Amino acid sequence: MTAIIEVNDSNFEAAVSQNGKPVLVDFWAPWCGPCKTVGPIVEEIADEFGEELVVAKVNVDDSPETAARMGIRSIPTLALFRDGGVIARQTGAGSLGQLRTFVKGNI
């Protein structure tokens, strides 16, 4: 199983910009029902694309500055970063197939 890193306000910039691979960030909160659906799907993506991609999670309740700076208005939101910048974004719960297509189409 590929590790998913937990990032927060203090280490977000380093996590998404100082990495040689694209970074998929799952913006979520523990009280969010759809986030609970997306969580296991994100874990599957981490396992499947672990050689090509870093997967990170940001709890928006614990990291409000990052959520505000990234313009996160609803969750779950998945954002794909390359060299510190967002290259793609998807909001809402989707299927494993949809997320796989999102990742493949953008890395």
Keywords:
disulfide bond; 5-stranded mixed beta sheet; protein-disulfide reductase activity; alpha/beta; Glutaredoxin; Thioredoxin-like_sf; redox-active center; 107 residues; 4 helices
What is this structure's SSE topology?
Elements: E1 5-7, H1 12-17, E2 23-28, H2 33-49, E3 54-59, H3 64-69, E4 77-82, E5 85-91, H4 96-104
Parallel strand pairs: 1-3, 2-3
Antiparallel strand pairs: 2-4, 4-5
GO molecular function, one term: protein-disulfide reductase activity
Site (Contributes to redox potential value): 33-34
GO cellular component, one term: cytosol
Low-confidence stretches: none
CATH class: Alpha Beta
CA-CA gap between termini? 20 Å
β-strand amount? 25-35%
Strand order of the largest sheet: 1-3-2-4-5
Shape: globular
The averaged pLDDT comes out at 93
Which class of secondary structure composition applies to the elements? alpha/beta
Q: Main β-sheet, in a few words?
A: 5 strands, mixed
Q: Helices and strands, in N-to-C order?
A: EHEHEHEEH
Which second-level CATH architecture applies? 3-Layer(aba) Sandwich
Write up this protein.
The protein has 107 residues and is α/β, with parallel strands linked by helices. Helix content is 36%, strand content 26%. It has one domain: Glutaredoxin. The protein contains four helices and five strands. Helix 2 links the parallel strand 2 and strand 3. The protein is globular and about 30 Å long. It comes from Marinobacter similis.
